[in-house]
Specification:
Length: about 325
């Protein structure tokens, strides 16, 4: 959020209920629900003394809730935060846990007492396990093309800088057969090799017909990008969610079926969310079992789910302010 310009960059820029001037308080609500726990946070612009800070684009956390089960209800609420006050459910209602929490701090970060708030730890660990892969750089100066210090890498960095280490980790403690199969699926007869010199890892790809392997710096943009997706999706510790934004970028059309099979293989172990503008990739994924396709469209500047009605979504409530 900070890289894109702070809270104003993610606020709704369209009209508010067919009026051109904003009348409601500026707020951003985010949340998720699962069978185990749910969480929501309400963010707003700094107020009071914080309004005079130089960090005026940083959001202030106004409200947080943690609850048990997929739907927020008063009886399932386990933690509630209003401004600086954080309360947790006790034997006789809610007990004060923190009374002076700063607006820039989340209750998830400071309320992690395993004995008193195990549900907060569960939510925090769940969110931390999510992986978001937006745009992998593949230009000549991309981090993935550089030789890097190698260490066991259970999840590829979002910039791909530890690609060689991530692939070597998959080879050693992951499913090396899946790794070999996904490389061969995209580049028949090819095989990967990770070399280490002085603790620095480099990647090379052996391809049929070439007299020597190609090092990472020599790979085409499409080849490198596919290998980045292999490292991201075959991670030995996939967490509970992997988000892939436009994975088809820079890939040759012939690689789309292999990419779809790679995504499907990963989806057998965890939930994978793919955001794509490519109709062919969407069709390939839609043909797979247990897949769900959600089509979006613009309506008066607002992104909506195509064909959905007001009551079609999952049960959800933001609770009372």
């Amino acid at each position: 959020m900070a890289r894109e310009g702070g809270l104003p960059s993610v606020l709704w820029a369209g009209r508010e209920k067919h009026v051109t001037r904003r009348r409601s308080p500026v707020t951003l609500r985010v949340g998720y629900a699962s069978d185990g726990f749910g969480y929501l946070a309400e963010l707003g612009l700094p107020g009071g003394d914080a309004a005079h800070s130089a960090f005026t684009l940083d959001p202030e956390i106004k409200r947080e809730l943690v609850w048990a089960g997929p739907v927020l209800r008063p009886v399932t609420t386990l933690l509630q935060r209003r401004g600086p006050l954080v309360q947790v459910r006790g034997d006789d209602g809610f007990d004060v846990l923190i009374s002076d929490l700063a607006g820039f701090e989340s209750a998830l970060a400071v309320a992690g007492d395993p004995a008193r708030t195990p549900e907060v730890l569960a939510v925090r660990d769940q969110v931390r396990s999510w992986r978001f892969y937006d745009t992998f750089r593949t230009d000549s100066g991309a981090p993935a093309r550089s030789v890097q210090i190698g260490t066991r890498t259970l999840a590829l960095a979002d910039d791909g800088s530890d690609l060689a280490a991530a692939l070597q980790t998959i080879a050693e403690i992951g499913v090396v057969a899946d790794l070999d199969a996904c490389v061969d699926d995209a580049f028949p007869g090819s095989r990967l090799r990770v070399s280490s010199e002085g603790g620095r890892f480099d990647l090379s790809l052996h391809q049929p017909g070439l007299l020597r392997p190609l090092r990472t710096a020599e790979l085409s943009d499409g080849t490198l990008r596919y290998l980045l997706w292999v490292a991201a999706l075959l991670t030995p510790r996939p967490g509970e969610l992997i988000v892939c934004n436009e994975p088809e970028t820079s890939l040759h059309r012939d690689l789309l079926p292999a990419l779809a099979r790679l995504i499907t293989r990963a989806a057998a172990r965890t939930q994978v969310l793919v955001v794509t503008h490519d109709a062919d990739l969407a069709a390939l994924l839609q043909d797979q079992a247990d897949s769900t396709t959600v089509s979006l469209h613009k309506q008066e500047g607002e992104t909506r789910i195509r064909g959905s009605e007001a009551l079609d979504g999952p049960s959800w409530t933001w609770g009372t302010d």
